[in-house]
Design brief:
28 strands
């Protein structure tokens, strides 16, 4: 999935959002209207894998095995073009939309991991820089101010903070990190991993504590005000809601088989991708006021979180 974005032309106070979900099995990207709870478009993207990135008016979808990034217009939506890239994966947009970052992931390196992060210019639609990192990265997310990228390296129990301007890095540890997200104030980094959610100091990557989840966690998202974490437990059938200040659970939502989660920029909806929940996989759209599922949208047979 990609972070929901305001549909072009809508006024900012109106929380009408679109989310983009890739289905590797059918080589498609599904466009979800998060408020209406409908699939508004399906776009053919051969080899599409993993969550896309949204920068400005474009969606960037990686196809690692085909060595391309497909660019989709958010308004139409139609394919605008394709960019050659070596084993691209895990794209993410800079907060100001001036760059799209992605890991270059040849399968020989720890199974879709690599030691570089590539910088793509949305203006030029070409890769303009390559940044070396000290360990393979399988997940990439920016700090709210864009001054750092946080990289999770599942194979080596490491998390890296990367300055995209200077290339300087700081390295911390977390057991089997799968996903990383930054708090809205930029002070903390939350890492979904083997013990649950690790809370790291954003500047030093020193571990400040752990939100224990039995069996570990596969994904984590944070509300826009920072008061809630939405955690996907590994192998569980629910979405956990945790107060990051107290590190205590404050709610849960039953889902078919949660695999990934994202929260809209207005914070009123959480989108949960359910993997392996039957012949047709669904996206559960959760109202964050009532913590209930308000829509279930069929996506495909093998969407990739």
């Amino acid at each position: 999935m990609a972070q929901p974005t305001a549909i072009p032309g809508e006024p900012p106070p109106t929380e009408t959002f679109r989310s983009y979900v890739t289905d590797h099995g059918s080589d498609t990207v599904t466009v979800l209207d998060v408020v209406a709870g409908t699939a508004v478009a399906t776009i053919d993207v051969p080899g599409a894998l993993g969550p896309p990135a949204v920068a400005g008016g474009s969606v960037y979808v990686t196809s690692p095995e085909r060595g391309v990034i497909t660019v989709i217009d958010t308004e139409t939506p139609v394919v605008l073009g394709r960019i050659a890239a070596a084993w691209p994966r895990s794209p993410v947009a800079a907060p100001d939309g001036a760059a799209v970052y992605f890991a270059s992931c040849p399968p020989a390196d720890h199974g879709f991991a690599s030691n570089t992060v590539e910088v793509l210019s949305p203006t030029l639609n070409t890769v303009v820089r390559s940044l070396p990192v000290p360990h393979p990265a399988t997940s990439v997310t920016p700090a709210p101010d864009g001054d750092r990228l946080y990289l999770a390296g599942f194979a080596e129990d490491l998390v890296t903070a990367l300055d995209p301007d200077t290339g300087a890095t700081v390295v911390g540890t977390a057991k089997a990190p799968r996903a990383v997200v930054c708090s809205p104030d930029g002070a903390s980094v939350y890492v979904a991993g083997a013990a649950g959610v690790y809370i790291l100091d954003a500047a030093t990557l020193r571990c400040l504590g752990t939100i224990t989840i039995e069996g570990g966690a596969t994904d984590v998202a944070v509300s826009p005000d920072g008061s809630r974490l939405y955690v996907v437990p590994d192998g569980a059938r629910d979405l956990r809601i945790v107060d990051p200040a107290t590190r205590e659970p404050i709610g849960s939502v039953d889902t078919p088989n949660a695999a990934a989660v994202e929260v809209t920029s207005g914070g009123t909806r959480a989108v949960v991708l359910n993997a392996g929940s039957g012949d047709i996989v669904v996206a559960s759209i959760v109202d964050t006021d009532s913590d209930t599922i308000v829509h279930s949208v069929p996506i495909g047979r093998s969407p990739s979180p």
